[in-house]
Each structure stands twice: as C-alpha cells, then as structure tokens.
C-alpha cells in the first residue's frame, strides 16, 4: 500500500488494524559518470515498494535528499545539513505516530544517512513515541555482495550499478563503465585511507577523482536482480519480525 495513492477514508482500516510503516530514504548525489544522481533513492524506493507489495504494509513517499555534502564538488549533488535532516525525518516520523503508527523501518540506501537515522530512532524510542530502525540493503546480504563482485566499492561501485541496471536500465550509461572504473579507485583498503590512525579525508573526491570506487564493469542486471530479490527477502522478514513484537518490548529497559 502506498500512502500517497490512497484517499484518506481508504486509510481508515489500515491505521485501525496495522501499526508498521516503511519509509524509503536515499540521496540525490553524484554516482560517477555512469549512474544517475537518483541512484540511492531509486534503490530505497524499489526495496520499499517490493516489501510493501509482498507484506501489505504501508509505504510512505520517498525522502530523496539526504546528508551528502561529501559529494558537493560534483555537478548537481543536493544535500541538507545533518541537523536539518535529523529534525525533518523526526518530524516526518512523528506524523506517522499521530496517525497510529508505532513502528517504522527506514529503508535506507545512502551511507551518509545511517548515523543520523540511528540518532532519530533513539530520540523517538527514548521518548516512547514509537520504535524506528534503520535498514541498509547491502548490510542484510553481505556474503552475497562479496561473492558476486571481486572488486566492490562502497559508492557507485558494481553493487549499486547492478541494482540500477536491474531497476532502471535506461538510466545507466553502460558505455561509460570502463571510464568509471579507470577514473575512480579500484584497489583500496579502508585502513590505507587513514594517516597515523586519523581519517584525514572529508570528501569523496579526496580519494576518487570521478567520485566512485570499485570495478563497475563487473556489474550486470542479472547480478542486480539476485541482490534485489535476496535483500527484499531480508526486508520482508524484518517487517514480519517487527510486526510480531509487543510494543512494550521495543521500548527502553528500566534502570537497573
């Protein structure tokens, strides 16, 4: 069920009988020369739609702009400051609580949003407004991601490329995959990006001249479909688990 497609009387039964909502979130930011700026929010929306279709749970409109200042050097990247993002998402989520929702899954596809969604979830839980948890698709299937790609990358790499090839192939510049690989960073270890224990970089361009990491030529729509189906299964299971929990068990424990 998609909230924005319903008339308000047609939502009566849902809010009366159900208490869970899916909130897709992503970003509008550079994803290299081969992928659209919409990559993250298209992925989040795709997962939320598929899970909502399979479970019948409510899906809200997508939050398309996130915390992305570390990509600002590239044309078109949009972002909001982190405190603004947190306050906006919290207010958005409180809207759902007002209508009777007491558990929310943030279906997130942008790494820059993670810590802020966790903070919002803590605020709302500590106040016993509702229980909100952040879900990131690749964190739900790490073994499959590792098995499918020899040289993966956390941003604009083969895993995101494969998903967009599956979800929106017309938006992928397949003729630029080799350029994306050759102009980015393919061989890297997180520890090698540190200096004496400090993360001395702030922006994507500090590590990758074209903003992406990994070997994009290793991506295919078939691999994207495998990723999508496997992660959707995990999201559906999370929905069913969360729906089964007594609300009081989701709240903070008493002081010992």
Characteristic key phrases:
globular, 256 residues, 10 helices, two-stranded antiparallel ribbon
Describe the fold and architecture.
The protein has 256 residues and is an alpha/beta fold. 43% of the residues lie in helices and 9% in strands. It is built from 10 helices and 6 strands. The strands form 2 sheets. It has a 4-stranded parallel sheet, with helices on both faces. Strands 5-6 form a two-stranded antiparallel sheet. Strand 5 and strand 6 form a beta hairpin. Helix 2 packs across helix 7 and helix 3 packs across helix 4. The longest helix has 24 residues. 43% of the residues are buried.
- Main β-sheet description: 4 strands, parallel
Straight-line distance between termini? 41 Å
Find the structural class using helix and strand composition: alpha/beta
How much is the radius of gyration in Å?
A: 19 Å
Helix-residue proportion:
40-55%
Summarize the structure.
By secondary structure, this protein is of the alpha/beta class. The chain has ten helices and six strands.
Give me the secondary-structure topology.
Elements: H1 12-17, E1 20-25, H2 39-55, E2 58-59, H3 82-98, E3 103-108, H4 114-126, E4 131-136, H5 137-140, H6 142-148, H7 158-167, H8 177-183, E5 194-195, E6 198-199, H9 221-244, H10 247-250
Parallel strand pairs: 1-2, 1-3, 3-4
Antiparallel strand pairs: 5-6
